[in-house]
DNA sequence: GTGGTCATTGACCGGGTAGTCAACGTAGAG
DNA sequence: CTCTACGTTGACTACCCGGTCAATGACCAC
């Protein structure tokens, strides 16, 4: 028994990397303490030593997923554009990211729907809510002086982007962000 | 051993009803042969006698879900309306249905994301595809004579409706279909 | 009645799971 | 060098799962 020691951070990262790989390749159900331990080249007990429980491991894994896929939304360097152009640009960037990270986004949805308690949902909900927060300002600008209500537009945009994420998961190859963008451009208020 | 006999149909319905109830109340993971049998007041063996395997039971349950929630889309009695009014109306009806059946829709998504093989996904995909088929004709009519492309509009509408279904699941109480409809009306082409 | 068909039971099996723990190495402090 | 603190191991427990099956009863045709 016993074996070489590594710093906590390094071990945790290795375990999470193994869990991430298994989840991507075979889905959330395949993420068991044993399989993760084997994939990381350590014993099962060590997983619990570092993450206390399986839920602890999954929470950490969810954190990795959310940090890597949903938390880059920003319109800081777009301030010079007209509001509608900025909105279009933000949507475009987001749709491209959804295509790129569709496997990770699928895992996030798998987390969301695998449980009904708040353990995972609260975290995911917070990330989703950031969508609304990110789109709201520009939507209000776009709506100003039109018949459109800013908050209603923001709700619609969020629904559209999230629906697009489902399309991306359903069929990553055939999903075409350009179709949605083209429609938006065509209904652009004068 | 042995016990009162019931016709196959009646038994299957009772088992499915029990499974449905458990799934709604506690999620898909809670649907085990034992729990379903207990809830239906029968023995575990009988579940397998009637459905052969757990996957068989889940497939049947998914069928019940899809029949009850996604398969009523139709625009037959709306032919007299202008294309755009018809599209609005269809979206409205669908959004209201999503709110009403949000628990069942959530279960459908749980089915979708619980597995990555085609056992459940193919069935759900077929139902989702019917969305596109249902919206395509009216979208083409709406697009005729405008800068909008019919098929692109249809893809956008499907994404919007499916995104709205996620919003409904996230927060059934606060989700407001009217917000989306109002935005659509505001961007309605002349 | 009698025989046969079939729904029904529940104990049972093999297997995978989360989580525990006493024993054991290893490294660093004194 | 020794002692202590802690990372590490893997066998172990308790549990629940899907699935099987011989025994059993209910029902029907004759």
Automatic annotation (TrEMBL), chains A, B:
It holds the Pfam family TetR_N. Keywords: DNA-binding, Repressor, Transcription, Transcription regulation. Residues 9-69 form the HTH tetR-type domain. It comes from the Bacteria. Residues 32-51 bind DNA. PANTHER family: HTH-TYPE TRANSCRIPTIONAL REGULATOR BETI, HTH-TYPE TRANSCRIPTIONAL REGULATOR RUTR. It comes from Cryobacterium breve. The lineage of its organism: Bacteria, Bacillati, Actinomycetota, Actinomycetes, Micrococcales. Gene3D superfamilies: Tetracycline Repressor, domain 2. InterPro entries: BetI_C (IPR039538), DNA-bd_HTH_TetR-type_CS (IPR023772), Homeodomain-like_sf (IPR009057), HTH-type_TetR-like_transc_reg (IPR050109), HTH_TetR (IPR001647), Tet_transcr_reg_TetR-rel_C_sf (IPR036271). This is TetR family transcriptional regulator.
């Amino acid at each position: 028994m016993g074996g070489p020691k590594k710093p906590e951070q390094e071990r945790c990262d290795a375990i999470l990397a193994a869990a991430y790989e298994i989840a991507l390749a075979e889905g959330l159900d395949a993420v068991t303490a044993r399989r993760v331990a084997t994939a990381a080249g350590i014993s099962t007990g060590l997983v619990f030593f570092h993450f206390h429980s399986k839920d602890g491991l999954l929470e950490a894994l969810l954190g990795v997923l959310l940090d890597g896929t949903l938390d880059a939304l920003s319109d800081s360097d777009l301030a010079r554009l007209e509001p509608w152009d900025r909105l279009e640009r933000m949507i475009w960037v987001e749709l491209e990211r959804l295509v790129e990270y569709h496997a990770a986004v699928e895992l996030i949805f798998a987390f969301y729907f695998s449980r009904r308690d708040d353990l995972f949902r609260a975290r995911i909900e917070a990330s989703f809510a950031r969508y609304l927060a990110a789109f709201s300002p520009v939507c209000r600008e776009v709506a100003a002086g039109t018949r459109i209500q800013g908050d209603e537009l923001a709700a619609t945009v969020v629904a559209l982007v999230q629906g697009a994420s489902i399309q991306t998961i359903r069929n990553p190859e055939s999903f075409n962000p350009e179709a949605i963008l083209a429609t938006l451009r065509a209904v652009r208020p004068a």
